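Table S2 (text version). Query chain:
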Amino acid sequence: MKFKRVYPPFQSCDSTYERSDVVIFSCPMDTTTSFRPGTRFAGSSIRVDSFGVEWYSPYWDMDLKDYFTCDVGDLDLPIGDVKKALKVIYNATKTIINDDKKVMMVGGEHLVSYGVIKALVTKYPDLHIIHLDAHTDLRDEFFGNKFSHATVIRRAFDLLGPGRIFQFGIRSGDRSEFAWAAEGNTYLQKFDLTGLEEIIEVIKDHPVYITIDLDVLDPAVFPGTGTPEPGGITYKELLDAIYSFRKLHHIVGCDIVELAPHYDHSGASTAVACKTLRELILLLHRNVKHEKDHR
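Corresponding structure-token output:
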């Protein structure tokens, strides 16, 4: 698979693919959305609104313009065909990681993360996942489908097995999902991010993928999503979590998913997604530097 940078890109991320250490792509898919659709428009909305976001992060004291990042835009996903779409995402991720670059994916519904995770496991069999979300996403099937945004973490478990998925902020799901997690299949922290720093310390030397469903945020902060769930974390808590990820030694990629921009006409939810994406891109570049310094 060959990539070309897209115009306009996210913010100032207009480096060529060949020069870049971090590659952004978006997945315009909301085929299995169970309540309100619209996440397929997240990538394009984020790119347009990113010009209202500074390239300098005072949190990291880092500047997007100082790093090589390529935004290759929306993947060309076949509308309505979940399996083919996941294969496109898988192949794109494989190309990026085989070229020794970091993956920064923008959803789309949360199921798109499965295509990325499946590819990452082929290169990093000891992969661990940190999952921030309002929802468990641990159903074995949903409306008869094994592949759904409500089953994505269960499908990731099928690839990784027990003890390698760490869920935080969870406050919604079927009783059976919470019971299944409690059997030791995943680490599940209800309601907030308590214990995140301790988990980071335990898994810091393993390859880690970070998947952030933005509905982990309270809908007062982030109403622009398909399944808003009251009782979420604040944006400051999310920023603190992202900052704590600096202690991970080998982050192989990140994603943000489930922005449905048209449900928030103020644009605030897209602004939240843009700022989160900036912070994660810089986190990945910081991790690239750490890995190079310790080779």
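Notes on Table S2: Residues 22-293 form a domain with the Arginase; Chain A fold (CATH 3.40.800.10). The two ends are 29 Å apart (CA to CA).
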